[in-house]
Design a protein that fits this description.
By secondary structure, the chain is mainly α. 52% of the residues lie in helices and 7% in strands. A two-stranded antiparallel ribbon has the order 1-2. Helix 4 crosses helix 5. The longest helix is centred in the middle third of the chain and has 27 residues. The N and C termini lie far apart (110 Å).
């Protein structure tokens, strides 16, 4: 390697000309393991603070603004395959790994929701529950199926509640005496004696 530092112009995209880091030594964006990265990230993210201007009675933002192409730089680093070392778009390699993972998870969730939408059986109670679970607008056939299921359930439960305790006991005894269990036959034989 020669004594002159390389200039930061190795990225083959058009927005590099607008970057704040153009013409800088690219080695500063490749910090050693465990070295602080905040001063390097300030080149990308800027260093702005809010200060109260007493003369004008308003808060003002003072300091260096973020790099104008920070988002493009980050997108470029996220699109590169494999492990991308260094600071790109104000993020370290570890931070970009987390971003990629979150993007993958969001994409998987989006695809699974789309697949689930196609599997909904409209006009059924299961379809109503699926639409509710996916937070989709519930269609008219599914709403109708839900109300039918609700009416059937209410009819069944109110019918059981109207049975008297004596009728419930007699039904139980009848089911035991007509069963084919050995104990049921014994109980039936004892009751006839």
């Amino acid at each position: 390697m020669s004594g002159a530092p390389e200039l930061f112009n190795f990225i083959p995209v058009s927005w590099v000309g607008k970057a704040r880091c153009r013409g800088m030594d690219p080695n500063i964006f490749m910090p050693d393991l465990g070295a602080p990265t905040e001063p390097i990230k300030e080149i990308c993210n800027g260093k702005q603070t809010r200060v109260f201007n007493r003369a004008r009675q308003v808060y003002e933002t003072v300091g260096d603004p973020p790099c104008p192409v920070r988002d493009e730089c980050l997108a470029y680093a996220l699109e590169l395959p494999g492990k991308v070392v260094g600071i790109f778009g104000g993020t370290s390699e570890k931070e970009r790994r987390v971003l990629k993972s979150n993007m993958r998870n969001a994409d998987i969730l989006k695809r699974s929701r789309q697949q689930m939408r196609t599997r909904i059986k409209h006009g059924t109670y299961a379809g109503y529950r699926a639409e509710k679970r996916l937070r989709l607008p519930i269609c008219e056939p599914c709403t109708f199926a839900y109300h039918q299921e609700k009416q059937q359930h209410l009819k069944k439960t109110t019918h059981n509640e109207q049975d008297s305790p004596l009728k419930q006991i007699m039904t139980l005894v009848h089911s035991v005496t007509t069963a084919k269990w050995p104990i049921a036959k014994d109980i039936a034989n004892e009751s006839t004696l």
